[in-house]
Design a protein that fits this description.
With 223 residues, the protein is an alpha/beta fold. It contains 8 helices and 11 strands. The longest helix is centred in the last third of the chain and has 22 residues. Strands 1, 2, 3, 5, 7, 10 and 11 form a 7-stranded mixed beta sheet that branches.
Length: 223
């Protein structure tokens, strides 16, 4: 149902722990591994430039075939949020561009994930506000002419990139891809991800000493 506008519980304590792990190499892979390869968005959704982001999902449901800019999400967003949009997978109509990115950044919103398209990636890269989309296109929505801002829903369960995203779920996104960590599993997954990140860094340092595959298997039993 469109025109439903909810809020969700924000957990700055957990967000700080996600932020602490973000500098790790391949952080999306780490969370994908500890969640047994679940909750990974389709590989078609990628950033147009090198980027990393984590935050809680403010979800947006658009009407397929009649897309509008999710401006209402900017009005409702809080610092630390990541906007996650179901735009019906439409690769030909952008729902996010440079001006929207600048406004979102001013509110402390960290990024946008779109099952659909974006544009203005030169501007977005310059202001360091990342998006993850299926496609990039010059074509925008009709919102700038129609001023329609209400024909969507905010903070309802959505599907994005083949994954169910609930309001407040944590997003872990990097140049490799996007992973969704359910809010009720976040603490458990954080503990497992921190252990794996540390283990991988120890292994990385060990490999840098010139070890072979045979050495690695003998030491760790796996690659």
């Amino acid at each position: 149902m469109l025109k439903t506008f909810n809020d969700f519980e924000r957990r700055p304590d957990l967000l700080a722990r996600f932020d602490a792990l973000l500098p790790s190499y391949s952080i999306s892979c780490i969370f994908a591994d500890v969640m047994y390869r679940q909750n990974v968005m389709t590989s078609a959704i990628k950033p147009p430039f090198k980027a990393k982001a984590t935050g809680q999902a403010i979800t947006v449901q658009l009407s397929g075939g009649d897309l509008v800019d999710p401006l209402r999400a900017l009005e409702m967003g809080h610092p630390g949020d990541v906007i996650v949009v179901n735009a019906g997978g439409d690769p030909e109509t952008s729902v996010c561009g440079g001006l929207m990115g600048g406004l979102a950044k001013n509110r402390g919103i960290r990024a946008m994930i779109v099952d659909g398209a974006g544009r203005d990636i030169d501007e977005l890269e310059d202001i360091d506000w990342p998006i993850w989309t299926r496609a990039i296109t010059p074509r925008g929505t009709h919102t700038m002419f129609s001023q329609r801002k209400e024909e969507l829903s905010i903070n309802v369960p959505i599907a994005c990139g083949g994954v169910v995203v609930n309001p407040g779920d944590f997003i872990v996104a990097d140049t490799i891809g996007v992973v969704v960590v359910p809010l009720d599993k976040a603490e458990e997954m954080l503990e497992l991800a921190a252990e794996q990140a540390e283990r991988e860094q120890r292994t990385r340092e060990w490999v840098a000493k010139g070890k072979t595959i045979e050495d690695l298997l003998a030491e760790f039993g796996r690659i």
